[in-house]
Design goal:
608 residues, alpha/beta, seven-stranded antiparallel β-sheet, 20 helices, globular, binds 2-deoxy-2-amino glucitol-6-phosphate
Length: 608
């Protein structure tokens, strides 16, 4: 997600902004920029790439401004290039805006502004905001921002400055954090305290729907409805390292706990309840092209491959389209058959995985339409594909993928509904699944509350050297992903299997040193799973069952049970993976492994 920092006070703003941006780098970004209120107006400097690129084009300048704003951008709308980097200005260049969040109705707003004669320079949603503020600005910057935001749907954390109002910075929050740093004769605004801590530990957090007018020695807070708000001053006791991890011990745990929010972002603006379908404009496919899809190939690596396997199960079951999931490293060399009407979905969090990129290029060479499901906007796979869907999970710092996986599954669930509703799925069925999807973030929150219980389980099993993970149907990809999470961060050997497959060999491994994690929700294959569990018990195997809340029977067989809330089986994988992520995390912690940077692993495997 993007980073924001602003300064107003007696000191030069430039060094303070650059220090603040450096403190925000950990959030992940792909471009950066600053705006300064110099004597002759607003000066903006911004560039694609990392902070050194911005430093190289600013350090020689002798900036005098003592008011400025800065930004690190994690691209959501528009490539990570110089033009799309923040700050954004309108047409007069007298106002500059930095923004964290997604403005859902930016296209409609942009069309209205274009009809009023406004000319746009970028593809971003944020530039629309700059034009809106400029449109409403008649001397009072706070009022102009308030009026502009009253038109906006979506999420924002913003900071705004204007050469017509050199003594203020205006900030506002809706869904993306904004915090005011209260100094002595100076004030700061930022998206998180990491950018402020060097200057003050006294902060005021804005709440959703609030705006702040910040001067060098004061600030006031009010709502969009112009209701004054009494600030609540807090003192930060965290150190910087803790702040970058949001108070969590590791990025991986932070990212596991971000999933209610990242899943909301993955579905934001994409649930079309009026037509009981999904809205995925980025696919760039016309209705008849979507109608005439005859076959789907999904290709990916690692965790993304597990998401793709779920995609196969869902699309075949609900949309009745033949789907094959392919390891990208195999697909690229085995001369795949690509016939007319074949669509290839290419799943990659980084958008840079060498095997996946090569697989996509091979498919395109053979005439396939390739659609990317990526997290990094402007990544190679995203750019070279014929269209696609961004998962909007924000930067995933932990090498072991967690929030990207659930957002990949979310997007595949939405693609399933879109395709199914064009075929045999009824309005009522579509509406029911959309409702189930909309409730997923809250259900994930429910499961995250089991963290302490799962930590206790980890204490019971962390000394084991082998694990089996079993699941049937849509829970088989979850078993695979649970096993991968454990092995890649704890270095314990773990294998995922279709539960029934255990009889064809793996059952020889079962003894009291082989814990078996079994996905055992009360779904259509529940009784089959119970039989598999009995087979394990008969061989003194130890079972950790992931079951449905209220299931009394399961505890008679399993040694330990993690209960999930009862949900529609369509969305069960989205919450079923959460306890397995936490179990892997806590076991790795107990084994003193480097959770965020496991040995031998890279976050993006850009080599064969
Ligand atoms: C997942 O925890 C691993 N880090 C790894 O399997 C990863 O999923 C795989 O390398 C694919 O990466 P991508 O999604 O960026 O293409």
């Amino acid at each position: 997600m993007c980073g924001i920092v602003g300064y107003i006070g007696p000191r030069k703003a430039y060094p303070i902004l650059m220090e603040g941006l450096k403190r925000l780098e950990y959030r992940g970004y792909d471009s950066t920029g600053i705006a300064l209120l110099e004597r002759d107006g607003v000066v903006v400097c911004k560039s694609a790439g990392k902070l050194p690129a911005l430093i190289s084009c600013t350090e020689a300048e002798d900036y005098q401004a003592n008011v400025g704003i800065g930004h690190t951008r994690w691209a959501t709308h528009g490539e990570p290039n110089d033009a799309n980097a923040h700050p954004h200005t309108g047409m007069t260049g007298r106002i500059a805006v930095v923004h964290n969040g997604i403005i859902e109705n930016y296209s409609a707003l942009r069309e209205v502004l274009k009809r009023q004669g406004r000319i746009f320079k970028t593809e971003t949603d944020t530039e629309v905001l700059a034009h809106l503020i400029e449109e409403y600005h008649n001397g009072n910057l706070l009022q102009a921002v308030r009026r502009a935001l009253s038109q906006v749907e979506g999420t924002y954390g913003i900071a705004v400055l204007s050469s017509d109002n050199p003594d203020v910075i205006v900030a506002a929050r809706q869904g993306s954090p904004i915090v005011i740093g209260c100094g002595d004769g100076e004030n700061l605004v930022a998206s998180d305290v990491a950018a402020l801590l060097r200057y003050t530990n006294r902060v005021v957090y804005l709440e959703d729907g609030e705006l702040a007018e910040v001067t060098a020695d004061s600030f006031s807070i009010s709502t969009l409805e112009e209701v004054e708000v009494t600030p609540h001053l807090e003192e930060i006791s965290w150190n910087l390292d803790m702040i970058e991890k949001g108070g969590f011990d590791h990025f991986m745990l932070k990212e596991i706990f971000e999933q209610p929010e990242t899943l909301k972002n993955a579905m934001r603006g994409r649930l079309n309840f009026e037509e009981a379908t999904a809205r995925l404009n980025g696919l760039n496919l016309q209705y008849d092209e979507l109608h005439h899809i005859k076959r789907i190939i999904i290709t990916a690596c690692g965790t993304s491959w597990h998401a793709g396997l779920l995609g196969e199960y869902l699309i075949e079951e609900y949309a009745r389209i033949p789907v094959e999931i392919e390891y990208a490293s195999e697909f690229r060399y085995r001369s795949p058959i690509i016939d007319p009407g074949t669509i290839v979905f290419v799943i990659s969090q980084s958008g840079e995985t060498a095997d996946t990129l090569a697989a996509m290029r091979e498919a395109r060479r053979k005439g396939a339409t390739c659609l990317g499901i990526c997290n990094v906007v402007g990544s190679t796979i995203a750019r070279e594909s014929d269209g696609g869907v961004y998962i909007h999970a924000g930067p995933e710092i932990g090498v072991a993928s967690t929030k990207a996986f659930t957002s990949q599954m979310m997007v595949l669930s939405l693609i399933t509904i879109l395709l199914a509703r064009m075929r045999s799925m009824s309005f009522d069925e579509g509406e029911k699944l959309l409702r189930a999807i909309s409730e997923v973030p809250d259900r994930v929150k429910d499961v995250l509350e089991l963290n302490d219980r799962i930590k206790e389980l980890a204490e019971k099993y962390y000394n084991m050297n082998n694990f089996l993970y079993l699941g049937r149907g849509v829970n088989f990809p979850i078993a695979l992903e649970g096993a991968l999470k454990l092995k890649e961060i704890s270095y314990i050997h773990a294998e995922g299997y279709p539960a029934a497959e255990m009889k064809h060999g793996p059952i020889a491994l079962i003894d009291d040193n082989m814990p078996v994690v079994v996905m055992a929700p009360q779904d259509s294959v529940y009784n089959k799973i119970l039989s598999n569990m009995e087979e394990i018990k008969a061989r003194r195997g130890r079972i950790v069952a992931v079951a449905t809340k209220g299931d009394k029977k399961i505890a008679e067989i399993a040694d330990d049970v993690i209960y999930l809330p009862r949900v529609n089986s369509f969305v069960l994988p989205l919450i079923g993976i959460i306890p397995l992520q936490l179990l892997a995390y806590h076991i790795a912690e107990l084994r003193n492994c480097d959770v965020d940077q496991p040995r031998n692993l890279a976050k993006s495997v850009t080599v064969e």
